[in-house]
Amino acid sequence: MGDTIRAVDWVEGELVLLDQRRLPEAQPRLRYRESAAVAEAIREMVVRGAPAIGITAAYGAVLAAREAWETAGAGWRGPWEAALEGLARSRPTAVNLFWALERMRRRAADLPDAHSPEAALLAEARAIHEEDLAANRRMGELGAALIEGPCAVLTHCNAGALATGGYGTALGVIRAAWAAGKLTGVYADETRPWLQGARLTAWELVQEQIPVTLLAEGAAAWLMRRGKVAWVIVGADRIAANGDVANKIGTYGLALAARRHGVRFMVAAPTSTIDPELPEGDGIPIEERPAEEVLGVGEHRIAAPGAVAWNPAFDVTPAELIDAIVTERGVVERPDRAGIARVLAEG
Ligand code: MRU
Fold first, then answer.
1. Among 48, 67, 178, 262, which residue is least crowded by beta carbons within 10 Å?
2. Which residue, of 133, 152, 177, is where some domain finishes?
3. 209, 35 in Cβ contact below 8 A?
4. Residues 18 and 127 occupy one common structural domain
């Protein structure tokens, strides 16, 4: 169940992305043959969500390899590396992007100069994609096991099939918990300014007939105070070595409110989202996006002329506010440096 939506695909030598900017009114699929266009697609939010960005970048690296081989033959490594740097500049916070590019570099290091690297790199990108899907299914089982139920849960942004290789991280846990009969329903923050909750999470859940109730994120603390949810379940864009978690702006506020109201707080993320090089969350680069995204809704300007806006796309939730980080290698309860190191060593 819950495994039909695919945001990223590789079809007949082309990368195919579901244009998430158009959901739910339309579901156009865009095809890519150039790595620079893939970098632009990530920047412009055609594809979004940390694991999906990583998988897309890996396929972008395959297109870059083809371009580099066609233009430079045995000298493909130079132009290929330049294209990878272009992909890396697309968005700064989700570490899966850099993790996937690094993995592609490691695979390329073993390849001969005198043969096209495309086939070997495509196999690596496909492996990254398939492993992500398998990780999500495992996290679904592990995360659902933490929920006693019957209860309702709150989620934020979209950490579903659309944000990953399929099935989802936080929504994977929700899918598994629903299938196990533990959930009475799901509350989803609308998630300004891109409305990933209203447009994407609600779309995914409605398709699976999982009851979803939207709320403005300003209503979340009141929802908790009214005793409506037992868990907040979110994904992550980057997890520092001490368990601090960067995720969609608004996540930190949810964690503060959850702790105040005795609501438990779960983060579901694959180990590819952990950045062991970063000692703590303060070091995570936080993307700031254009003010226009806050000053209007879509193309429609709503703010008073003359107003300016601050638009951080992510925030950092300190580990002390998190009850459990669920990865495909196991659960870290009350996360800290030792717990994160332990789960990484499980590999
Ligand atoms: O700006 P976005 O839509 O790319 O942000 C996505 C999020 O913050 C998700 O919650 C996160 O990537 C986890 S997705 C499995």
1. 262
2. 133
3. no
4. yes
Give the tokens for residue 84: 């990878």
The length of the chain, given as a count of residues = 347
What does the pLDDT look like over 2-11, one tens digit per residue? 568 999 999 9
CA-based max dimension of the chain: 66
Dist CA 220 CA 152 (whole Å): 13
- 146 and 119 in one domain? no
Identity (one letter) of the amino acid at 121? L
pTM for the predicted model, two decimal places:
0.97
CA atoms within 13 A on the CB side of 198: 13
197 and 319 part of one domain: yes
Q: Which of 237, 244, 275, 315 is catalytic?
A: 237
Residue 237 known to be catalytic: yes
- The model's confidence at residue 1, banded by pLDDT at 50, 70 and 90, is very low
Contacts of 77 (CB under 8 A, 6+ apart): 68, 108, 113
Retrieve residue 62's tokens.
């395959």
- Using CA atoms, how far apart are residues 274 and 253, in angstroms rounded to an integer? 21
Tell me which residue has its CA closest to atom 5 in ligand 1: 49
pLDDT in tens, 71-96: 999 999 999 999 999 999 999 999 99
Ligand 1 proximity of 97 Cβ (cutoff 6 Å): no
